[in-house]
TrEMBL record:
It holds the Pfam family Na_H_Exchanger. GO terms for biological process: proton export across plasma membrane; regulation of membrane potential; sodium ion export across plasma membrane. The lineage of its organism: Archaea, Methanobacteriati, Methanobacteriota, Stenosarchaea group, Halobacteria. It is found in: Membrane. The keyword RNA-binding does not apply. This is Sodium/proton antiporter (CPA1 family). The keyword Amino-acid biosynthesis does not apply. Keywords: Membrane, Transmembrane, Transmembrane helix. One of its GO terms (molecular function) is sodium:proton antiporter activity. GO terms for cellular component: plasma membrane. It is a multi-pass membrane protein.
Length: 428
């Protein structure tokens, strides 16, 4: 009980302080992001530091991390779905298809290749770690594409692209994570059969179908209830949070991918719900997500396998740097021609850099640990996640401001050129 009270005081206090000074931190103390502060608190009060709290005293640490990460990612993908314009995926089919299919496969193979070459991992272990760190994290991405600074400096097409991708590819990473896990558990023939029939057709296909049906039904009922004055304000504001939890639990009971189902449910709810109510629900969803974001990062800080990182030596440092630099940016540059939101190399480099690795990867890493019990996978994956939290946290504010200032300068030069051309023509 004492450890629980310490957790309440420290995590609650951190959440209170960071919530009160969030704007100041983003503009002035940009080198210390909110997720980074939470991880540092976890290191301080956990076994790596003062040892005030040990997750192992509560339950299996990986079980705590997995379930907390699942709920946090579920809330995050629902928030991402509500944040998008209603017809976004329908209007950007080509862009999303490019980013979510060949783009994800490319990121998976690049990350896996770096693991295989730099830390001498067996092929299928390398493919598993590469798959774990492939998805763009909706929690960390949300801290970059939301808020006054994002609105001021990042064009809405880029914000929507990062939001849509981070929401969708967390669930779509499920099949690429489970393919190497199945191969590591079974013969290649059985693994391929299970992957095609169970993972793709049922766990992914059913998630999309069930999520769509539940989301559309909830949105339609909400809209009808609003029309007939059946809704009360207090009950309205709990709708999407309850929808997230219900979908995560219900779809998991069916043996399917609850995270993908939650995102699809959010998209369909977005289509059918009343637009005014949806804006209020988005604010509540973002608030609840914030309350869950700090604890999971604190727990992650408590569970960091620092001894394993040290054993990797400089190869671990090179791996983390290589994945952050080459996992995503080349993909965005290559697919720039098929993604209208990315107008030039400047947009491609910005969108390519800010594809952070976070709680979604943590969720898949803990799932892999539960199924395979491989400490090496956890050690390498956690190193990459922690590196992304650190580096993307430090660079978020300065890179965002630099990106916005470059856009302003280009637009100003273009406007000046147009004005001069107009004057010359008038004079002629």
């Amino acid at each position: 009980m004492q450890e629980l009270n310490i957790a309440f005081v420290t995590i609650g206090g951190l959440t209170l302080v960071l919530s009160l000074v969030a704007g100041f931190m983003r503009s002035k103390v940009y080198f210390l992001s909110e997720p980074m502060a939470a991880v540092l608190l976890g290191i301080l009060i956990g076994p790596p530091g003062l040892g005030l709290i040990r997750l192992s005293g509560w339950a299996d640490p990986f079980t705590i991390l997995e379930q907390f990460a699942r709920l946090t990612v579920g809330l995050a993908v629902m928030a991402a779905a509500l944040r998008l314009p209603q017809r976004y995926f329908r209007d950007h089919v080509r862009s999303m298809a490019a980013v979510l299919v060949p783009g994800m496969i490319g990121m998976w193979l690049v990350s896996s290749g770096l693991v295989y070459l730099l830390v001498d991992a067996p092929l299928w272990i390398a493919l598993l770690i590469g798959a774990i760190v492939t998805p763009t994290d909706p929690v960390l991405a949300g801290t970059i594409v939301t808020g006054d600074m994002a609105t001021q400096y990042i064009p809405s097409p880029i914000r929507n692209l990062l939001t849509g991708e981070s929401g969708a590819n967390d669930g779509l990473a499920y099949p690429i994570v489970f393919l190497p896990m199945l191969v590591l558990q079974h013969s290649p023939e059985r693994a391929l059969t299970d992957w095609l029939l169970s993972t793709l057709l049922w766990e992914v296909g059913a998630a999309i179908l069930v999520g769509a049906v539940i989301g559309a039904a909830a949105g339609w009922i909400e809209s009808e209830s609003r029309t007939h004055d059946f809704l009360e304000e207090t009950s309205l504001l709990s709708v999407t949070v309850a929808l997230t939890v219900a979908v995560l639990g219900g779809v998991k009971l069916l043996g399917s991918d609850g995270i993908l189902a939650a995102f699809v449910a959010g998209l369909l709810f977005n289509q059918f719900a009343d637009a005014t109510d949806e804006a209020d629900e988005q604010k509540v969803q973002e608030t609840v997500l914030r309350l869950f974001t700090f604890p999971i990062f604190v727990f992650f800080g408590m569970a960091l396998p620092i001894d394993q990182w040290v054993s990797l030596g400089w190869a671990g440092v090179a791996l983390a740097a290589g994945i952050l630099l080459f996992r995503r940016a080349p993909m965005m540059v290559v697919f720039r021609q098929t993604v209208p939101s990315v107008e030039d190399d400047r947009d491609a480099l910005f969108a390519g850099w800010f594809g952070p690795i976070g709680i979604a990867a943590l969720f898949y890493a803990t799932v892999a640990h539960r199924i395979l019990g491989n400490e090496f996978v956890w050690g390498v994956a956690s190193l990459v996640i922690a590196s992304s939290v650190l580096i993307h946290g430090i660079t978020a504010t300065p890179f965002t401001k630099l990106y916005g200032s470059v856009i302003d300068r280009v637009q100003s030069e273009s406007s000046d050129g147009t004005d001069q051309s107009s004057v010359f023509t008038d004079g002629g």
